[in-house]
Amino acid sequence: MRFRFDIVVYAFLGMAVAIAIAAVVSGSGEADATGSAAVPHYQRADVRVRCTDEPQISRGQDPMLVQEEYGTIPSTVSHLTILTDENCQPDAEGVSHCRNRVQFETATGIEQATLRHHHRMAEEPCFTPGQYVEVVR
After folding, report:
1. What is the DSSP code string of 9-53?
2. What does pTM read for this prediction?
3. Minimum mean pLDDT among 40-44, 78-82, 114-118: which range?
């Protein structure tokens, strides 16, 4: 029986990928580099958003308010896919200023933009990567 080094390498790579996926999916609640516990994130169904130019705190209303920070979402776009949910630690007033990269489809292809979701966790949850939201004007 001959030792197969390539099988061992693939086994270790597979295990590393599985552990990384488990850590991302679980949202583990571990402390970040500042020692603060991670903020819980909750996905909501049937979410509608309205884009604003200036920061406005979204307070659990429909539609939820988001600020366009980088890029422009064309008026023809009606749905966004949330790609990231970052920087969710609340400020001194308890407001989180979450940064969300989003993806959308236009006539020329797939594009991305970055939004800020200013909200209090007790009033409105964060977006979840993979979540699909409707844009209202």
Report:
1. HHHHHHHHHHHHHHHHHHT---B-TTSPBPPP----SS-EEEEES
2. 0.68
3. 40-44
pLDDT at 77: 97
Could you tell me the two tokens for 51?
A: 């884009």
Dihedral over Cα of 99, 103, 107, 108: its sign: positive
Reference 42, options 134, 122, 135; nearest CA is 122
Residue 117 and residue 101: Cα distance in Å, rounded? 11
What's phi and psi for 36, nearest 5 deg?
-85, 145
CB atoms within 10 A of CB 37: 10
| Contacts for 115 with CB less than 8 Å, ≥ 6 apart | 49, 51, 66, 67, 68, 69, 99, 100, 101, 102
Instruction: Find out whether 114 and 85 touch, Cβ atoms under 8 Å.
Output: no
